[in-house]
Structures are given as C-alpha cells and as structure tokens.
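Write out the bound-state structure for flavin-adenine dinucleotide.
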Amino acid sequence: MTPCNGKNSPKILIAGAGIGGLTTALSLQAAGLGNIQIIEACPRMRAVGAGINIQPAAVRELTELGLGRALEAEAVATARLQYHHRYGGLIFSEPRGRAAGYRWPQFSVHRARLQELLLAEVRRRLGAAAVLTGRRLLHYEQAASKGQRSVLVFTAESPRPLRCDLLIAADGVNSAARAVMHPHEGPPLGNGIWMWRGVSEGPPFLDGRTMVIFGCNSQVKAVVYAVSRPDTTGNCQLNWVVETHGDAGPAAGDTLPAAGEWDQSAPAEAVLAHLDDWRTGFLDLHAVVSAAPRILRYPMIDRDPLPSWVDGRTVLLGDAAHPMYPTGSNGASQAIVDARVLAYELAHCEVDEALSRYDALRRPQTTQLLAAHRRLEPDRLLHQVEMLAPDGFTDIRQVLPAHKLVDVRSCTRHVTGVDAAGLNARSSWNVPVRTA
Ligand SMILES: Cc1cc2nc3c(=O)[nH]c(=O)nc-3n(C[C@H](O)[C@H](O)[C@H](O)COP(=O)(O)OP(=O)(O)OC[C@H]3O[C@@H](n4cnc5c(N)ncnc54)[C@H](O)[C@@H]3O)c2cc1C
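---
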C-alpha cells in the first residue's frame, strides 16, 4: 500500500465549505496531504443556521486537530438530556458527554460559530486561497491522461473544468455529485414533520447545560438548549426547535422545497399557535419563541442509504453521503468523523484502496444510524406517555413502569452511536507526519 501523503500527494478538490468540507481540509492537511482546494457555492461565507450538537466522538476528532480550546470557548458542554411532558412533568433524564463517562464533552454550539472557527483555521493552516467561494459544482467526469486517472469538475461559474486527482463531495443534502453518482435517486424524502427553528436571547434554565425535549412528535414537540454561556447581562443564546406533525406538516412523499429554499421564514404566531395550552414550568417556552429575531421553517428530511459512496476518483462525505433526521444530533458529528477516517486512510493507502476502506467502514455505520433515526424510538415512548397522561403528572412512575424508562436509554444510545468505553479506548486517527 503506497500512501498518498508526502511526494505522492494527489491534487484534492473538496466541494462544499460546510462542517464536513472544512474538517476534511484540516484533516488532510494534518495527515500530511498538501495540494487541497475547496470550492464553495455561496459567493460569501455567511453566518447561517442555528444550534447543532457535536457528540463526544466528533469532539475528540476536533480536539486531536488542535481545536479543542477554541471550540470550548464558543460552545456549551452539554451535561444532561431530559424529556418532559408538555405540562412540565419529568419523564426521563440522562447524563451526556463527560458526565456520561466520555473523555470528551458533548458540545452545543451555533452552527455559524463552528463554521467560522473551522474556516478561519483552514485559511490559517492552508492559506487564504484554500477556499474558493462562488464556485458551484454542477457535475463531474472521470478522466485519464498519460495513464493518470483524474476528475474533471464542472462548475456553474466557468466553462473550463477544474482537474483534480480526487474529488471529495461534501456539498450537503442536495449534493450535485451524489446526483451524478446516483442519477435516479430524486429529491430528499420528507417524513411529514415540519421544524420551526430559532435562536433567542434569554436567561439560562436548569443548570444552563441541559438539553430539554417537551411533548411528542406525533403531536407537537419542542427541543431547547443553550448554545452560549451567559454574557454580562446574564442572558445566553437559546436554540429551539418546534416540530409539528399531521395537518401542519408535509405528508411523506410531498414535494419539498428545492435546494437552497428549504429555510423559509415564519412569524412567531405560527409557532405559538401550536403551544397554546403548554405549561412548561421551569422554562417559559412562549417567551423563548417570541424573542427569536428570525424563525425558519424546514421539513424533516433524509435520503435512503446508498450502495456506494465511491465512483472512480469521486467520493461522498457528510450530508452528501448520509443525510439523516436531526433527532439524534448527528449531522455535524458524522461529517467530522467521515473527514478524519478518510484522511487517515488516504495517508496510509493509495487512493483507490483508501476510498474503498473509507466506504467499507463508514457506510455501514451511518446506514445503521440512519435507520435508528428513522425509527424515532424515544418518540414512541413520549407518545405513549401523552396517551396515558394527557393532563400531565407529578411522578412519571405513576404513569410508566421503570423498565420502560430503561428502554429510552437504549434508544438514545442507538442514535448517539458510540459507547463511551469503546471511544475512550480506541487509538487516535492522528497521522504522525515526518518533516523533511
Ligand atoms: C445553511 C445551512 C444551515 C444549517 N443549519 C443547521 C442547523 O441549524 N442545525 C443543524 O443541526 N444542522 C444544520 N445544517 C446542516 C448541518 O450543517 C449538516 O447536517 C452537518 O453539519 C453536515 O455537514 P456537511 O458539511 O455535510 O453539509 P452542510 O453543512 O450542508 O454543508 C454543505 C456545504 O456545501 C455547499 N454547497 C452546496 N452545494 C454545493 C455545490 N453544488 N458546490 C459547492 N458547494 C456546495 C453549501 O453551501 C454548504 O456550505 C445546516 C446546513 C446548511 C447548509
């Protein structure tokens, strides 16, 4: 196996400067692979999105890339996850991150802060020209010249294709590369749920590090967590999502908004109408929703798993490879893990072998996760609680037997994906790089 770092370093083009694409560039560079260019469709990198979570497995990877301290300064180390009835009663609570035995925390952070941090680090480590904005990948073709295999990358902005030895497509859920690789797939799949999202300034609740979930998504569900520590006014940034189902949401199979139009602004009243009789006790959800300067509405979507992520010298990564429902807080985490595995394999094997090893490791793992997200397992139990106690309760043990609550723990583990002992014991994917 001839590794492709050092003198053999191929010319690598990454499509998409999202969390996956930027982490890939940093991972390749850290593994000794030079010659990296990112193309990004947006003409200017804008601070967009709301809160995301980074699971300990991905925090480990960012820490081993030297970003642990910077991330910690931007994020909240999530300590607990709690499920509550819409009238406030506590259904279930479990520790997260370090409190759950991981050597690395789980972080809640604003997506824009994370993207800015990664982008600044890419520019610092790879040079200001490493990210070419305003270049949208349209399609690619495999090519060969003088016995060397390469990829021609066609963009919307220029008739002249870019040539590279390897195209890593991290161009998100509406990936253009995926559409070339799997031309009959069609648009993403909706599951009938709409998500209203916002980030509001407000006082922290509970310990300031707890993610809370109210209600159940067979009716209405709300998720709230802090993505910043309190500032000098005592307020922090609270990320929230309200999910509605049935008449208020797109039916499975409905035509969904086209690429780039999936974040549609909505007024607070549209959200509050679903929370009319809610009494969430320790957190004034109505005030949180009303305080959001901007509310966006997204359909909950994913795609079916693929039979392959590799086509010649083109490979899919992150949401381009395995978009899944955000219910397990896994989108960014899985993209980060993909990036590190791919860089590790490229540093140890020649390109074809590396791509096939990456595909063999990551595709089954993410396929399993995707299926676990689709089962919406914790939601089934929340639904059961709602049916048994529509008017709320003071003690969940009067509603459900204890073993049912143990089931929730195993459900959340399915979607979080990695056991703490396994992650803590695994050797690092850092690649020792020899300097000349
Ligand atoms: C604008 C935006 C806001 C988001 N907000 C949230 C959020 O609030 N919460 C959450 O959990 N998840 C959010 N996500 C999704 C989340 O970031 C991803 O699930 C996760 O981080 C995986 O990252 P990714 O890099 O694979 O994909 P993405 O983060 O989607 O990044 C893909 C990148 O590729 C670029 N791109 C797309 N098409 C092309 C093309 N043809 N050529 C070149 N570049 C292209 C996009 O502009 C984007 O920068 C958001 C994604 C986007 C794009």
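---
The two ends are 21 Å apart (CA to CA).
The chain has a mean pLDDT of 89.
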